[in-house]
Each structure stands twice: as structure tokens, then as C-alpha cells.
């Protein structure tokens, strides 16, 4: 008869959530993981309309900044003193240029070069308009007039993420101690699991809403913006796996004093077996008593 320890399953789920949450929150620090941005702003087409339109009031100013030997460039941002793209992380903003295609130099590829990252304080707000106007050549500052002045803040999301990661870490410590000491369940940690899931869910929802608003930006030298699939996958994976950890914790409290056992060899049938020597804490027994009085235990 083999035992299935649910505490071990929750422990490894918590480890997985902790790892995913740290990768999500630390992406972009020291120029690493630039492929996991919160959002990407594609500004590679900035100024091209004025460059190709002789009737534009900024045409002469834009043309004067571009060398005469440059013909049909896919991007002129380097001559305007701005970058082809800007990406947001929780603790940094990175920027760089796209590499033109070797077979067709008039087309930009998704490959990047000359990447620079600037550290930002926790909970910063990003404004593409302010970023562009701060470096744009004064002769063509009018190119940013029609650019959105909207700011995207990370304050609420990062605060929720801090709380979630803290509670996951505390759950990890509690489960490690529980497994080491041989205690099957620590009912007290269900609150930490619930708070962590709610925080991850709220933080993911906030950033998803902001990402969708960024995806709708177009025109005035902005877009199309690459979709941050990797970031969304990471942030929602944290929410899903933490929810599973919470469900396992709730299942453990609901069935506290019992464990799964496999009946017979190769039968594949599982049943509950009562464990009469459960050593849960007083608060844990109180939670169990409340749940059972509510008909949930």
C-alpha cells in the first residue's frame, strides 16, 4: 500500500510559483531577459510620413537630418536621436534598434541591436511621449505632437506582486518546516495561499488591461506593437499554479486527519484512510472545526 503525500505536491507547486514570480518580476534587470517585456512600443516608423511627404511642414527638417547617400531607409529614428523600440519591465526600461534584412535592406527584421537598459524605481510610470520628446532632435520636435501622452503605471501591479511573492515565500518556509518535522498539514497557511493567489490575479489583470490598451496604439510613428506573449504566459501561470496550490491546501484542511492511499498493487484505486495521530496546531483545528460545521469538511 503506497501513500500519496499531498503536502509534497503543494510544496513543489509553491516552488514553481516562487520561481515563475521571480522571473516575471526581475526580467530586464541588468539587461537580462529583454525577451520578457511587460510591453513593447514600436517607434521605428517615427518620421517616415514626413520624410516621404514633401507637403509636410516637417519634411525639410527631417530630410536635413538624413545623409544624402541614404535612400529609402526602413527607419530614420537613429537620425532623429530616438530608438526603434522601447520596452517596459518592472524595474527597467530598455531600448534599441531593429536590424534591417540582409536580403531586403528596406525592411526591418525582429532582430535587435544596440540594446540599452535604464534602471527604474519600483512602481514607476512610463510615458512614451515624454521619453521621445526628451531625446528627439529639436528641429523635428513636432513629430511627437500627435503621440499619446498617456502614462502607464506599474505601481498597483508591483504592489500586488510584492504581497503575492511574500506570501508564497512564507508558504514555502512553512511547508519546508512542516515536511522536515513530519507534520502533514499546516492549516494556518491557507490564508497566505489565498492572499497570494488574489494578489497574483489582481496584478495580472491590471497589467493585461494596460497591455491591451498599448496594443491599440497606432499611427503617429507608433506600432504595430509586438504582443508580449511571454510575459502574459508567465504572469497568468503564476496565478493558475498558485490557485492550484490554494486548492490543495484547502483540500488538505477539508480532509485533515486523513490521507490518500493506493489500495492493492496495480489496482489504481484510491481511498481515504483515517490518521488518528494527526498533530495539527490549535488554530488549524479551529479552522477544521469551522469548515466542518459549515458542511465543507
TrEMBL record:
Membrane-crossing segments per the record: 160-182, 194-212, 232-252
UniProt entry keywords in alphabetical sequence: Membrane, Transmembrane, Transmembrane helix
UniProt key word Transmembrane: yes
Name of the protein this chain belongs to: Integral membrane protein-like protein
Organism for this UniProt entry: Hyaloscypha bicolor E
